[in-house]
TrEMBL record:
Protein name (database record): YhgE/Pip family protein
Principal subcellular localization: membrane
Topology within the bilayer: Multi-pass membrane protein
Keyword Transmembrane helix appears in the UniProt entry: yes
């Protein structure tokens, strides 16, 4: 007897009569009812949140900013009501609290009275956070609180974006004002630097000139000291000048008078000598006449006259000397008179001269004292001018650094070309660019791999409520264990194939699952059905009622460890080995890649593991068929029947 004949016999048995046929149809529909209905019910719950009643309380009193009234609470409420994601009900705080407690509202969102004031607090230099009050009640629905948390996070992000954008706009406006003022200050600093440089040049010239002035003042002071010393000496030496000059005048007068007398006597002598000399001329003429009269010849007369002239020559010389001395005596008399007159004038002027010298000495002393004061002032001026030059140098350097620093600082102050866009970027600096390498469009599509795998296991599990694992007739006929095992598994495999095909057809056409690889998905599901039926067939064949119980236990374990909802790495560490050991995790992984279009690199491992479970299940069936060739009391009368 072949396995196919054994399978056909079992199928005829379970379809004999109207009610058995209905039971078979019901078994085929079980995975559809579980998988398709569950996916349909949870296909896109987030798109149906508009029917979720939610309370909205707006107690915001508003705030005044820069002369404008702001009510952020009303703005947030208007935005929530304009594009509603929930069934919002704007109510009072009391109604909201009562509604959440009585399950009238799923949760409540409250914008408190100081909401606007808190948002505008940075402008008042008293920054504090605005508060969004979320009221939930887990007795209404636990997941509703999770949804509410996400909604509040979204509202908070939107408010933060708006407030951040407004604050950034004010900040950029302030930056623009600061930058403009800094540039003006830089221009002023540049002018100041130029002026300071010129002032430094002037101060350097002043320092040089004041140093020269101080040097000259010192030299002048030295000269004035010498002048005072000389005038003091002159004053002391001329103190007796008036009396001495008077004595000189008196003596000069006496000398002049004596010289006048001498000059008078000399004049008399000179007159007498000249008269005598003139008389000698007459005597010569008389002698010449007498000699001529005496009859002397001309030569004799000439000889006599020559002798006479020779004798007269000393007289003529003496007369000349007398006349010369007389002229000198006259000059001496006149000069001595002039000396006497000058000495008299000197005697008259010497008191004034002495007084003038004394005054000059006093003035020189005052000049020296003044020059000393001036010299001290010139020294202070020179020192001050040097300090001024040093200060103006520092001022010039500092103003140049100020100019450069202001220009550099102005270059670092933001000057956006589009302040509005910049403010928006600062207020909302990060956006998310989602790159989906493999995407499930809806919540239901995301759960499809998990629930399709579970539906296949449940479908395989219920089949053995009707099917017999092994043919007793074949066992009694001593058929080979392999043929008996295969014949017992084929009816379940056939019905599993029908379950999978029907489930796949409905979820892809009516529910909305669109596999990236339809044929691959269907083939993988068929393989999964074969493997699950083989495992459950082996457990039922080998262990009977205990095997059915183990099948239920394996279902529960795989529900918690397959990683169908959360990543399997999030399950407790003691359960993670079960994820690796049990087949449903590999089914979920393979279906995800086939449904969403992900990389198929791990699909080989998934198929190998599931195929391995198929082989193991068939091996258990063969073992069971081999063991059941011998009848035992427990087989004839089982202790537990399910």
């Amino acid at each position: 007897m072949s396995p196919i004949r054994l399978a056909a016999t079992e199928l005829r048995r379970i379809t004999a009569g109207k009610l058995p046929k209905i039971a078979v149809v019901a078994l085929v529909l079980v995975p559809l009812l579980y998988g398709a209905m569950y996916l349909y019910a949870n296909w896109d719950p987030y798109n149906n949140l508009k029917s979720l009643p939610v309370a909205l309380v707006v107690d915001d009193k508003g705030a005044e900013v820069n002369g404008k009234q702001l009510n952020a609470g009303n703005e947030v409420a208007d935005e929530l009501l304009t594009n509603p994601k929930f069934e919002w009900h704007r109510v009072s705080a009391t109604d909201a609290a009562d509604g959440v407690r009585d399950n009238k509202y799923t949760f409540a969102l409250t914008l408190p009275a100081d909401f606007s004031q808190a948002l505008t607090s940075p402008v008042q230099n008293k920054p504090r956070q605005g508060v969004l009050q979320l009221t939930t009640n887990d007795s209404n629905n636990y997941l509703a609180r999770t949804i509410a948390d996400k909604v509040v996070d979204a509202v908070r992000a939107a408010v933060a974006k708006k407030v951040g954008t407004t604050a950034a706009d004010q900040l950029l406006t302030g930056y623009a004002t600061i930058r403009s003022s800094t540039l003006q200050a830089a221009d002023g600093a540049s002018k100041l630097a130029d002026g300071a440089a010129k002032a430094n040049d002037g101060a350097q010239q002043l320092a040089t000139g004041s140093a020269d002035l101080a040097t000259g003042e010192h030299k002048l002071l030295d000269g004035s000291n010498q002048l005072v010393t000389g005038l003091d000496l002159l004053k002391s030496n001329t103190a007796s000048l008036p009396s001495k000059t008077q004595q000189l005048a008196d003596g000069a007068k006496q000398v002049a008078d004596g010289n006048a007398q001498v000059a008078a006597g000399g004049s008399t002598i000179a007159t007498a000598a000249q008269t005598f000399n003139n008389n000698l001329d007459g005597v010569r003429s008389d002698i010449q006449a007498r000699l001529q009269a005496a009859g002397l010849s001309a030569d004799q007369v000439s000889q006599v006259l020559a002798v006479l002239d020779n004798a007269r020559k000393p007289l003529n010389d003496a007369n000349g000397q007398i006349q010369t001395v007389n002229g000198k005596l006259q000059q001496l008399s006149a000069g001595s008179r002039q000396v006497a007159d000058g000495a008299s004038q000197l005697a008259a002027a010497s008191p004034q001269l002495a007084s003038g010298i004394a005054q000059a000495d006093s003035g020189a002393t005052q000049l020296r004292d003044g020059l000393k004061t001036a010299t001290d002032g010139a020294d202070k001026l020179s020192s001050g001018a040097s300090q001024l030059a040093s200060g103006t140098k520092q001022l010039a350097d500092g103003s140049a650094q100020l100019r450069d620093g202001l220009n550099a600082g102005a270059g670092k102050i933001p000057d956006p070309n589009d302040p509005s866009a910049t403010a928006n970027t600062i207020g909302d600096p990060v956006t998310v660019q989602a790159v989906g390498q493999a995407t499930a469009d809806t919540y239901g599509a995301g759960l499809a791999p998990f629930f399709l795998g579970l539906a296949t296991w449940i479908g395989a599990f219920v089949l053995f409520l009707l099917l017999r694992p092994l043919s007793r007739r074949a066992l009694a006929a001593k058929q080979r264990p392999g043929i008996v095992a295969l014949g017992g598994w084929l009816p379940a495999a056939l019905l599993s194939f029908l379950q999978v095909v029907l489930l796949f057809a409905v979820v892809t056409t009516l529910v909305g699952v669109h596999p990236s690889d339809p044929l691959g998905t269907l083939g993988f599901l068929v393989l999964t059905g074969f493997a699950f039926t083989a495992m459950l067939h082996g457990l039922n064949a080998l262990l009977g009622a205990v095997g059915k119980f183990l099948g239920l236990v394996l279902l529960v374990l795989q529900l918690t460890t397959a990683g169908g909802t959360f990543p399997w790495q999030t399950i407790p560490a003691p359960l993670q080995p079960l994820h690796i050991a049990l087949p449903l995790g590999y089914v979920v992984d393979g279906l995800r890649h086939l449904l969403y279009g992900g990389a198929l690199s791990s699909l080989g491992t998934d198929i190998a593991v599931i195929g391995g479970y198929l082989v193991v299940g068939l091996a258990l069936s063969v073992l069971a068929a081999y063991k059941q060739r011998v009848w035992t009391p427990s087989r004839l009368k089982p202790e537990l029947v399910l």
